[in-house]
């Protein structure tokens, strides 16, 4: 499995470099943030599947993947709710 781990490492490094290069492009920062969040989700999934050996444990992977998403949605709802109250 050394070849597999090196391949996953290459993907993780490549996705990280894409995020770095995106920050240099003249596009809106909100777009960059959304793309980088998507890339980070892919990287987190790769790490959970291969380095944390969750590929065989589907229900654990679902919990690992869904828990941060729920927390992110809660945090975003608090931020947007407080922003609406200020307006």
Question: Can you describe this structure?
Answer:
The chain is mainly alpha-helical. It is built from 3 helices and no strands. Helix 1 packs antiparallel against helix 2.
> Major sheet: size, sense and barrel closure?
none
If you average the pLDDT, what whole number results? Answer: 86
Q: List how many beta strands DSSP finds.
A: 0
- Terminal CA distance reads 55 Å
Kindly estimate the percentage of residues that lie in beta strands according to DSSP. Answer: under 5%
- Give me the secondary-structure category: mainly alpha
Number of helices: 3
What spatial form do the alpha-carbon principal axes imply? flat
Helical amount among residues, as a percent range? over 70%
Global Rg: 16 Å
Spans where pLDDT lies below 50 across 5 or more residues:
none
- Output the helix-strand order: HHH
């Amino acid at each position: 499995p050394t070849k597999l781990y090196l391949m996953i490492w290459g993907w993780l490094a490549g996705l990280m470099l894409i995020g770095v290069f995106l920050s240099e492009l003249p596009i809106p920062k909100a777009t960059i943030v959304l793309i980088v969040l998507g890339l980070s989700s892919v990287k987190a999934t790769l790490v959970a599947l291969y380095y944390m050996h969750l590929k065989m444990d589907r229900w654990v992977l679902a919990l690992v993947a869904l828990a941060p998403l729920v927390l992110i949605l809660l945090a975003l709802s608090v931020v947007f709710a407080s922003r609406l109250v200020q307006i």
